[in-house]
Design goal:
The chain folds into eight domains: about 50 residues, Laminin (Ribbon), CATH 2.10.25; about 35 residues, Laminin, CATH 2.10.25; about 35 residues, Laminin (Ribbon), CATH 2.10.25.10; about 35 residues, Laminin; about 35 residues, Ribbon (Laminin), CATH 2.10.25; about 35 residues, Laminin (Ribbon); about 30 residues, no CATH class; about 120 residues, Mannose-Binding Protein A, subunit A (Mannose-Binding Protein A, Chain A, Roll), CATH 3.10.100. It is about 20% helix and about 30% strand. It is built from eleven helices and 38 strands. Strands 32, 33, 34, 35, 36, 37 and 38 form a seven-stranded mixed sheet that branches. The chain has a three-stranded antiparallel sheet with strand order 3-5-4. The chain has a two-stranded antiparallel ribbon with strand order 1-2. A hairpin with a 4-residue loop joins strand 10 and strand 11. The longest helix is centred in the first third of the chain and has 55 residues.
């Protein structure tokens, strides 16, 4: 080929081609050639624009159609691939020696050569078995075992389950006789099994004996002891109780002779016992002596002393009292000779004693002596004097002459209101108008306090008269009046 020619060579799948472009020769007339070339170039540019527009329109139409076809083919290929397995890719030089294995399908996709593998195989030529068990692409049940095979897999239900491997249901109860112990019913569930235990057992397999004693489900009596047994329990009444364990009644009295001391009576109660003590003892077992003296339950007299003894008490009358202690009467007079002075008479009373004094003495023991007494019965002057003499005295004389004594008698002994008339030892019986005291002492202005204008010869006997401020005057001797006796 000549040197002024340019050539290009390319290869296809089956042939090789060459294309050459010729160079342009020299023109003798350069100007003419240039003009022709300019006109040609203008026309060429216009044709190029028109041709380029046509080409672009066709290109765009071709591209859009190609994209749609490519998408449809891709979807078909993907669908087929999913049905047959993995796709292997290799070069065109390998194509002449390629055979897809294990039923793989040879295809061309996107200018590539591929083997579309059947399910269960992968690799460029579909020569590699897929382990569905390890890749997790199997559909065995969760309680089944996956077993890989050449080009596939198998499912086998695990122990205690039954089915085709894709579906497995529990079968624990049938395959495990006695799985639930102590006659507990076995029930297969959706995920395993369940043992329904009787009331005496618990645990997943009813293997645990239920302790009714510690669990509080026994019915032993409160006074009984619960003893757990396999599958049940036993009740036994405690000491001092009797019964079958479910019902226990107290038996303290029979089991414990002499439980109540000092002849106390033992009484069984619903839950224990009670000692009924006699009145001299107390305590749970009548063991404690009651001190009747300090507790105030004795019956000693108020004037007696209580002496506690074991199981009882004694009463002893106090000093100056006599009796059995329950009854005590005063004995002051006999026990105390001379208790009342000045010949006073001693008289026992319900609460003690009393001294009855003679008219000239007073005080608890007649120890106080008096020189004057008031006669309490009205008498005439003669009888009044006779009375005073009968008690060892006479009508008052010296006491009337002594103003201090007379005033004390008036203030403390006689009444200052009617009848305020009192005979005294003063008269003029021996000689009219000559007044003297019965002890022989003559009347003077110094020793006798006659009221003004007295004596007025109205009588012969002297008296004290309250109207005249207990001054002296004369009065008829036959009139009955009270009198003042003097010792």
């Amino acid at each position: 080929m000549s040197s002024d020619m340019a050539c290009t060579k390319y290869t296809t799948i089956t042939t090789e081609n060459e294309s050459c472009n010729l160079g342009q020769p020299s023109l003798p007339d350069q100007q003419q050639q240039a003009k022709l070339v300019g006109n040609f170039e203008k026309k060429e540019k216009g044709l190029k624009r028109w041709f380029f527009g046509i080409i672009c329109a066709l290109f765009l139409t071709t591209i859009v159609g190609f994209i749609g076809v490519y998408a449809m083919v891709s979807r078909s290929t993907a669908s087929l691939q999913s049905q047959l397995g993995a796709v292997g890719t290799f070069t065109k030089l390998e194509r002449h020696n390629t055979t897809c294995l294990n039923g793989g399908l040879f295809i061309i996709e996107s200018r590539h050569y591929k083997c579309l593998c059947a399910s269960g195989y992968s690799g460029i030529r579909c020569g590699k078995d897929i382990d569905e068990c390890s890749t997790g692409t199997h559909n065995c049940h969760e309680h089944a075992t996956c077993i890989n095979t050449v080009g596939s897999f198998q499912c086998s239900c695990n122990a205690n389950y039954t089915g085709d491997g894709r579906q497995c249901r529990p079968n624990f109860c049938s395959t495990n006789v006695g799985l639930c112990q102590h006659n507990g019913p076995c029930s297969d569930t959706s995920t395993g099994y369940n043992c329904s235990c009787n009331i005496w057992h618990s645990g997943n397999h009813c293997e645990q004996d239920f302790n009714e004693c510690t669990g509080g489900t026994h019915n032993c009596h409160q006074q009984a002891t619960c003893a757990n047994t396999v599958g049940s329990f036993e009740c036994s009444c405690n000491a001092n109780y009797t019964g079958d364990g479910r019902l226990c009644k107290a038996n303290f009295c029979s089991d414990n002779v002499g439980l109540c001391k000092h002849n106390g009576t033992c009484l069984d109660t619903f839950t224990a016992y009670n000692c009924s003590c006699n009145r001299f003892y107390t305590g749970e077992h009548c063991e404690r002596d009651i001190n009747e003296c300090t507790s105030g339950t004795h019956n000693c007299h108020q004037h007696a002393t209580c002496i506690n003894t074991v199981g009882s008490f004694q009463c002893s009358c106090n000093a100056n009292y006599t009796g059995n202690g329950r009854q005590c009467r005063p004995n002051f007079c006999s026990a105390n000779v001379g208790l009342c002075k000045n010949n006073g008479t001693c008289l026992n009373t319900s609460t003690g004693y009393n001294c009855s004094c003679n008219i000239w003495h007073s005080g608890n023991h007649c120890e106080q002596e008096h020189d004057h007494v008031i006669m309490t019965t009205k008498r005439n002057w003669e009888n009044a004097r006779r009375y005073c003499k009968s008690i060892g005295g006479d009508l008052a004389t010296w006491g009337m002459r002594n103003a201090t004594v007379r005033n004390w008698i008036v203030t403390n002994m006689i009444e200052t209101r009617p009848p305020g008339y009192y005979w005294i030892g003063l008269n003029d019986l021996e000689r009219e108008g000559v007044w003297k005291y019965i002890d022989g002492v003559p009347v003077t202005n110094a020793n006798t306090d006659f009221h003004q204008g007295e004596p007025n010869n109205s009588g012969d006997c002297g008296q004290l008269y309250y109207v005249q401020d207990f001054a002296m005057d004369d009065y008829p001797c036959f009139i009955n009046k009270l009198a003042i006796c003097e010792k």
